[in-house]
């Protein structure tokens, strides 16, 4: 029986290393950045320092937070729709090989078509700007969920499938009790990827819409700050975009861990594996 690793404040040495190592590197990079800006006397309209960016973020929090909510709304809705449709279509593919061979190529076409190229067309064709942003974000986020979940459903152990057939399980029972649990880690992995992609799709669509002055998300604030040469404000908006992407990834990773930690190897601690 393996001994449990000692903990401090609820974290092991490995846990503290994972937490503190990137944090220390980030602080060092920010300190070096601020030092170079002050030493070289670089003007803020060329490259603002981290301190000025933080001050701008606090000062302009009102309009930036409002734009953040717009971007978050589009991202969350796009991810929800992508997860729902991706899972449903993957289940349909698992039930019929003909349907999978017929429809999967079109999903690939959606994936390989650059969203930058088709976003202007979508915004022109769709009268509602929010709906057009949602469609663009959904296109980017949809494929990883569909692809990963399809692989997961098709990775079911054939011996277990034979066992279910031996006990005359219905197709619904096989799907609910065997195929879906097998595909769950794949689905959650695709969801983590799609979370960031949905944000990227929303930002790209907002950039396209923002050039026409018809959007109010974070990308529009970046464009607006660039036109007005308010570079610290532009960097503050970029910080919010990056922080939002990190928060989405961490939230989805935590959800994946909580769902898988008691039964799947990928989320179990080393000492828990037998």
UniProtKB/TrEMBL annotation:
Protein name: ABC transporter permease
Family classification: Belongs to the binding-protein-dependent transport system permease family.
Domain ABC transmembrane type-1: 68-256
Segments traversing the membrane: 15-33, 74-94, 106-126, 132-153, 199-223, 235-260
Principal location class: membrane
Keyword Membrane in record: yes
Domain of life of the organism encoding this protein: Bacteria
Keywords: Cell membrane, Membrane, Transmembrane, Transmembrane helix, Transport
Matching SUPFAM superfamilies: MetI-like
Membrane topology according to the record: Multi-pass membrane protein
Keyword Lipoprotein in annotation: no
One Pfam family cited in the UniProt record for this chain: BPD_transp_1
UniProt-annotated location(s): Cell membrane
Alphabetical list of InterPro entries matching this protein: MetI-like, MetI-like_sf
